[in-house]
Amino acid sequence: MTAVLFDFSGTLFRVESTESWLRAVLAETGHTLPEPELKAAAGALEAAGALPGGANPVELPADLAGVWAVRDESAELHRAAYTGLSRRVPLPDPGLHDALYERHKVPAAWAPYPDAPEVLRTLHERGIGVGVVSNIGWDLSPVFREHGLDRYVDAYVLSYEHGVQKPDPRLFSLACAALGADPRQVVMVGDSKEADGGAAALGCRVHFVDHLPVTDRPDALLPVLDLVS
After folding, report:
1. How big is the CA angle at 68 (ends 154 and 24), to the nearest 5 degrees?
2. Which of 32, 48, 68, 177 has the greatest number of CB atoms lying within 10 Å of its CB?
3. How confident is the model at residue 128 (pLDDT cuts 50, 70, 90)?
4. Are 3 and 129 within 8 A, CB to CB?
5. How far apart (Å, rounded) are the C-alpha atoms in residues 135 and 166?
6. Using CA atoms in the order 126, 124, 191, 79, what is the torsion angle rounded to 10 degrees?
7. Which branch of life, at top level (predicted)?
């Protein structure tokens, strides 16, 4: 194997909890909610699927189904989908919905899985190309930089920049080309069989990890090192 492609959310990094997300934005904007109301709002936002990288909607509103299906094809669609879900939940100030969306893009909202630094560093040291292929609506490279991991990534291929989202093989093909790698000598690592499994159409090997909190998944990425040894 000459290269490894990684998904972002749920694979290398995990977004903060919905409650942490809401608390941070309330603090940043000077709003307060009684604790029971805050917890209720966080629960409602979670059920709505309003946090990108968090849980999917328990029930997708019919009027958002169209934009949800293509949400990762542009920055505008991504924002429209997630703020549309957020606005289903009443908050003290309508402006908080946009503030919540902005919060999820900051590096502080993301934590790397415990073994991600070791795996990325080791691949880099072995001369294995590393690419990040993500269905997303914004530039995630600052998250990697803030956590000291950008130096190990050779290419970012982000759906919103190309108007194509996984599992479309074209996104994986772009990543392989950026790394100068034959897809048959590439491993795709992700948490979604539906989305990340699309790499198999090119001949890539696919390895799956579970989308769990960082505290519950300390070493699931380590087997990747054996796949390329």
Report:
1. 70
2. 48
3. very high
4. yes
5. 6
6. -160
7. Bacteria
Residue with tokens 């309508």: 94
- pLDDT of the residue at 217: 97
Using alpha carbons only, give the angle 201, 204, 207 rounded to the nearest 5 degrees: 110
* Count of residues in the chain: 229
Q: Which pLDDT band holds residue 229 (cuts at 50, 70, 90)?
A: confident
**Sheet strands (E) in 28-113:** 110-112
Q: How far from 102 is each of 43, 54, 116, 140, 192, CA to CA, in Å? A: 19, 15, 25, 13, 25
Instruction: Tell me whether strands 186-190 and 3-6 are parallel, antiparallel or unpaired.
Output: parallel
pLDDT 10s digits, 166-204? 999 999 999 999 999 999 999 999 999 999 999 999 999
Q: What is the token pair recorded at 28?
A: 């940043």
Q: Position 117: which residue type? A: P
Q: Measured between alpha carbons, how far is 142 from 28 in angstroms, rounded to an integer? A: 20
Looking at residue 196, its pLDDT comes to: 98
